[in-house]
Design goal:
Layout: E1 5-9, E2 20-23, H1 34-37, E3 41-42, H2 50-56, H3 63-75, H4 78-88, E4 93-97, H5 106-116
Parallel strand pairs: 1-4, 2-3, 2-4
Helix pairs in contact: 3-5
């Protein structure tokens, strides 16, 4: 099933076309109020493990390996993945993250995982 899925930084203002806004970070982003976040769901359980997140350290050279390791974690995290897929069946959703790097972060990796089926 193809999902209508977007990815953006939580620091960007909410937009009318975001659909359901889902924060997929384990840690709440600094300086963001719950009101500004306008979340449908904070699914911290789907974020990479602390060990994987710290190993990756947002180093682009580790990106390919990070995605592989994160996919393994997601494959073992059926409950959280099912919860997110169920939400995605109801229309557009935007995966939100706090990282500075817009190309190499867990939300981008998660979106790729979900789109791959």
């Amino acid at each position: 099933m193809a999902f209508d899925l977007m990815v953006k930084r939580i620091y960007e203002p909410p937009a009318a076309d975001d659909g359901q806004r889902v924060l997929v970070d384990r840690i709440w982003p600094r300086g963001v109020s719950k009101e500004h976040a306008a979340l449908a769901l904070w699914l911290k359980e789907i974020a990479p493990s602390d060990e994987l997140r710290k190993w990756f350290g947002h180093e682009p050279a580790r990106w390919v390996e990070f995605q592989k390791r994160y996919r393994v974690e997601l494959d073992r995290n059926e409950e959280a993945v099912t919860r997110l897929r169920d939400l995605l069946r109801h229309g557009r959703a935007t995966l939100l993250y706090g990282a500075h790097d817009e190309a190499h972060n867990n939300a981008v990796a998660l979106a790729g995982y979900l789109r791959a089926g």
